Amino acid sequence: MLNLVLFGPPGAGKGTQAEFLIETFGLIHLSTGDLLRSEIAAQTELGIAAKKNMDKGELVPDAIVIGMIKSKLEAHKEAKGFIFDGFPRTVDQAKALDVLLNENNTPISAMLCLQVETNELIDRLLSRGKVSGRADDQNQSIIENRIAVYTQKTFPLIEYYTPQGKHYNIDGMGSVEEIAGRLKAVVEKL
Ligand code: AP5
Ligand code: MG
Hints:
Layout: E1 2-7, H1 14-25, E2 28-31, H2 32-41, H3 45-56, H4 62-75, E3 81-85, H5 91-103, E4 110-115, H6 118-132, H7 140-154, H8 157-161, E5 167-171, H9 176-188
Parallel strand pairs: 1-3, 1-4, 2-3, 4-5
Helix pairs in contact: 1-9, 2-3, 4-5, 6-7
Bound molecules: BIS(adenosine)-5'-pentaphosphate and magnesium ion (MG).
């Protein structure tokens, strides 16, 4: 089983590259951001509560996202593997994911960290904001807050996966195809 954590700051290209990886390796894509936006669209209680955090660029509580991932793992017991995109985002989420995966003896294979310059992140997200309608893409200060939250709470996860020999840096600058090629090369060697 191939379980990949696709990691990197907001706008690094996690969602974009996940599309390639699911096709190439036949994996299930689990994006907590996408799952939360579906809850918002369906106006569920969970979605309405999460939106308050998301619109400000803050994280939603660990228990909510861990619960969503747990139910998705249970719903896809036959999967060849998963791509976790935008999850885990805190050390507590990473520990909870390990517990869930260990129940099935299917640990994380690799954490693939897309590295992109901050100016490029801001440019990508502001451009998307013009068409996406995503509240958190609409202005530079919210985008900067998302990047600050990443730096403070999420980036330290590298220290969680490195001692396990699972952390790989991937240059996330360049064309979508070039970056997909770099990711494929790393995953094929796992
Ligand atoms: P989430 O949806 O995960 O957003 P994010 O990580 O802030 O960033 P994006 O998803 O926008 O970036 P991405 O890396 O996927 O890049 P993409 O491929 O889209 O989270 C949103 C919010 O939900 C969080 O702030 C939080 O509130 C909450 N949340 C989610 N998960 C959570 C968790 N685990 N715990 C707690 N809270 C959680 O690309 C971005 C843009 O760039 C696109 O327009 C794309 O077309 C373009 N692009 C991509 N690649 C390239 C390239 N190579 N060159 C030029 N443009 C490119
Ligand atoms: Mg995304």
